[in-house]
């Protein structure tokens, strides 16, 4: 480098200032002078005055508070991978695992719940006889079925057809003992014209016991006549027959002759046919067309009851919820049971009313005192009564449709 002219304001050669500024070797600067920082890098390698380029920081880093520069040779850290959102699946019923058991449960609840609900709507009566000694308990179960003229459950249209008022059920045309047990099922009718000893009244027609003392006196009279212990009492009104038959959509009857009975409002022809509730009731009440009158009537009453039982057992009764409801509703609207009966007893009664059973009329003879009345046959009736009492097979000769000897 050329010598600089003197007097130009620059330190003179040989002075400490000159040596400190330009690097002289003449002498060291004083101890209190500013010390020169040793050069590094390129300057130390013999290129003291070479301009050095400082690495430029990225604008974003300078603006971010002076964070150290990122090494561009290192790949930037990728953000954490996000789990893919699960696809929404359409709901499909799992037929094998969930839906079928649920449907079965609902069906069972409905089949059990409907009768239990209607059980609460059934009227209960006191049928326990008062006073006197009753027969001891016997094997099997014996139901006393009574058909009354109770008509307060009829509609106005039904009363108009039947020409009846709102009677409270003081008379009975139907008295049936239904026995179930190991000896089989037997349905024995007791004609209403049967003369027997009525407690407190002497010898009377058996239906007078119901008219004067209701269920308790009728139970006591039947037990005294037959020796059969009555376990449960079931009373059916007019409406129960009409409405129950209509709920089933009709029942089949098979009259053996043309029947025209104005008093019963019946007009049908011979042969099997489906009839509605009003016709079924008239058919079971008619007693002025056939030769044996009341004896033929009790046989037709059992025929209608058996037809109802056959309809109740059809699968359609249980798979059709509307039909099932109507049947239970109709049956509960006009039935009365004893206070000791529970829902299970009523269910057993309903099952006993269905299927095959022996149907009989109490063996009988014309009453010596009145040919229009009957009495229990002293020779044949005890065999039928004993079979029911002991829960054994009923002898065929003692079980006939009219109760008369074959």
Give a verbal description of the structure.
The protein has 406 residues and is of the alpha+beta class. The protein has a domain at 124-248 and 308-398: Aminopeptidase. The protein has helices at 16-22, 59-63, 95-119, 156-162, 207-226, 238-248, 277-285, 294-312, 315-319, 321-333, 343-352, 381-390; strands at 123-125, 141-148, 172-180, 186-189, 195-198, 202-205, 232-236, 251-253, 259-261, 266-268, 273-275, 335-338, 358-361, 364-367, 370-376. The relative contact order is 0.13. The model is unreliable at 59-64 (pLDDT under 50). Keywords: Membrane, Transmembrane, Transmembrane helix. Residues 171-311 form the Cell envelope-related transcriptional attenuator domain. Residues 25-38 have a biased composition (Polar residues). The chain crosses the membrane at residues 97-119.
- CATH topology of one domain, anyone? Aminopeptidase
SSE order, as H and E? HHHEEHEEEEHEHEEEEHHHHEHEEEH
Largest sheet: 7 strands, mixed
Tell me what the CATH architecture of one domain is: 3-Layer(aba) Sandwich
**CATH homologous group name of one domain:** LCP protein
Sheet with the most strands: spatial strand order: 1-12-7-2-3-4-13
Number of DSSP strand runs: 15
Q: How does the overall form come out from the CA principal axes?
A: elongated
**Helical coverage, percent range:** 25-40%
Estimate what percentage of residues fall within beta strands.
Answer: 15-25%
**How many helices does DSSP assign?**
12
- Determine the N-to-C terminus distance: 162 Å
CATH class of one domain: Alpha Beta
Mean pLDDT: 79
Structural class by secondary-structure content: alpha+beta
Computed over alpha carbons, the radius of gyration is 54 Å
Low-confidence stretches: 59-64
């Amino acid at each position: 480098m050329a010598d600089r002219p003197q007097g130009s304001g620059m330190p003179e050669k040989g002075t400490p200032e000159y040596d400190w500024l330009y690097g002289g070797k003449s002498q060291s600067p004083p101890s209190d002078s500013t010390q020169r920082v040793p050069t590094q890098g390129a300057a130390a390698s013999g290129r003291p005055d070479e301009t050095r380029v400082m690495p430029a920081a990225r604008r974003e880093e300078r603006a971010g508070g002076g964070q150290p520069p990122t090494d561009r040779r290192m790949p930037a850290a990728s953000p954490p991978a996000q789990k893919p959102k699960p696809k929404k699946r359409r709901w499909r019923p799992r037929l094998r695992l969930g839906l079928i058991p649920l449907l079965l449960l609902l069906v069972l609840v409905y089949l059990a719940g409907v009768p239990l609900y209607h059980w609460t709507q059934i009227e209960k009566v006191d049928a326990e006889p008062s006073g006197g000694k009753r027969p001891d308990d016997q094997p099997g179960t014996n139901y006393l079925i009574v058909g009354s003229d109770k008509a307060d459950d009829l509609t106005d249209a039904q009363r108009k057809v039947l020409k009846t008022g709102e009677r409270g059920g003081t008379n009975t045309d139907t008295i049936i003992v239904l026995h179930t047990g190991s000896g089989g099922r037997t349905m024995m009718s007791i004609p209403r014209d049967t003369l027997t000893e009525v407690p407190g009244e002497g010898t009377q027609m058996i239906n007078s016991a119901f008219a004067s003392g209701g269920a308790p006196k009728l139970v006591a009279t039947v037990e005294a006549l037959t020796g059969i212990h009555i376990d449960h009492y079931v009373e059916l009104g007019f409406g129960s027959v009409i409405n129950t038959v209509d709920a089933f959509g009709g029942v089949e009857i098979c009259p053996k002759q043309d029947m025209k009975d104005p008093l019963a409002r019946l007009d049908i022809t011979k042969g099997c046919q489906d009839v509605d509730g009003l016709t079924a009731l008239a058919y079971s009440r008619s007693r002025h067309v056939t030769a044996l009158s009341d004896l033929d009537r009790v046989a037709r009453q059992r025929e209608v009851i058996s037809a109802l039982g056959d309809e109740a057992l059809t699968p359609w009764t249980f798979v059709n919820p509307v039909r099932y409801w109507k049947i239970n509703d109709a049956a509960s609207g006009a039935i009365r049971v004893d206070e000791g009966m529970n829902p299970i007893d009523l269910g057993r009664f309903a099952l006993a009313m269905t299927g095959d059973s022996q149907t009989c009329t109490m063996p009988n003879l014309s009453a010596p005192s009145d040919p229009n009345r009957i009495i229990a046959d002293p020779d044949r009736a005890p065999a039928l009564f004993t079979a029911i009492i002991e829960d054994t097979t009923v002898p065929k000769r003692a079980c006939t449709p009219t109760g008369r000897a074959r």
